[in-house]
Give the backbone structure.
Amino acid sequence: MLGGIALMDASGEDAGVPHGKPMDLVAYLAMQQGGTERDYLARLLWSSGDASKGRHSVRSAAPWVRRL
């Protein structure tokens, strides 16, 4: 992507999504058509750790995505 990402709520305020991997997850999903499996997201965004930690990280970031 080019440049940064800012997510705003309906009132124009910052949506409160933490920067870093949670924001990367939102950006990736926003550009996708259709669904994406959690295991794939874990490998894509949290590839440096083991698979179970990556899946846990996706589960931890998911509430931020659901609020949008």
Remarks:
- The mean pLDDT is 83.
- The two ends are 20 Å apart (CA to CA).
- The first helix runs from residue 21 to 31.
- The chain has three helices and no strands.
